[in-house]
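Predict the 3D structure for this chain.
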Amino acid sequence: MFTVIRTAWALLLGMFLLQIGNGLQGTLMGVRGAIEGFSTFELSLIGSAYFVGFLGGSRVAPKFISSVGHVRVFAALGSFISAIVITYPIVTEAWAWMLLRVGLGFCLSGVYVTAESWLNNSATNDTRGQSLSAYMLMQMMGLVAGQGILAAGDPSGWILFIIPSILVSLSFAPILLSAVPTPAIEATRPMSLRQVYDASPFAVVGMLFMGGVFAGQFAMAPVYATEVGLSLGQLSVFISSFFVGAIVLQYPIGWMSDRMDRRTLIIVAAAIGAGVALAGVFLADSYIALLVIAALSGGLAQPLYALLLAYLNDYLAVEDMPAASGGMLFVNGIGAISGPPIMGLLMGQIGPGGFWLFLAFVLGGVAVYGVYRMTQRQSAYVEEDNYDSVPYANIMPGAASAVAVETAQELYIEAAEEMAEGGGDETEEETHL
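Done. Predicted structure below.
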């Protein structure tokens, strides 16, 4: 891990600063939007717009990089992000915020593709798993730190918009001034959605549903917290709980995924997550209960992204794994775009409890569909063989870029090849923190 920090400190520091700004402005949207009188449904569309841009950026950014190079794309997108964040309080109209959020999602997706390809290029086979883990951990820590800044400011003024703009601008300095050589971008040609679905219907449907869960937690949690009357300090801790839970539970769930049937683990985690979310409908009056529910909800949901991808890989040939990640990214993006508006409509009809009800319904849907699939096909898990699937690095956010997912797939392929040669024990150490 010290080797990773020494060789990639500039990138890790830059992404930490960027995610502080991103986490701050993401939560601020829900709080300031309520102050401006935006409806719950309008706020849900603003939240969904981010994922529209993110999905588009993940497909277009590699073409830009191939045309003009990493440094120019990185600098240009960074300037756009800084400008977009500072524009929110200037034009306080819902339609304008939707357009700005599309632009923000597009630019951040391009930044992630650029940064992650840089990180992947600087890593070796021995450090790639640790590099990806450190990178994702810094992202999560930055999102949590952003909530602390929110609690100390006034969401009705300008300062909380100026701070993320400054942080975003500063975040690119260590990366652009570092001496790390720029890598080449090689876009993977994705499998058709039909081919991915045929390989594992459960993985595809589960990824679609989980896209809605991730987007709902990220975009609508601030709206929910505002509607139930949490103070700004309470709101910031509430939002942080989702990310803290993800950091704490990702390793135990990943550890279990290497020792039991992954499909069963996904079903159990989704079912427990649904029960936890349902409890949120009835325990909204208890702030401590909300924090616990948020932590468990984030902790149980976040690892499912990587688990579903790993479960799909259990049914693929090694040469098909990189191509399949493109289809799964698209499915996740469609779910992320659809989730916030549906959640917003539900909250508009039944009140803030619709936030938890949506999460419970979707997570429950994953569990129910998984049980159904158990009746249709035998699992890849074979108990007498001590589980023939390979370990998998499960630190993966719900809105990962194509490069991060393909890097994780490279780890999976390396692990599969090492297991075929009898090197499974060493692989497990490399793929987990």
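The chain has 15 helices and no strands.
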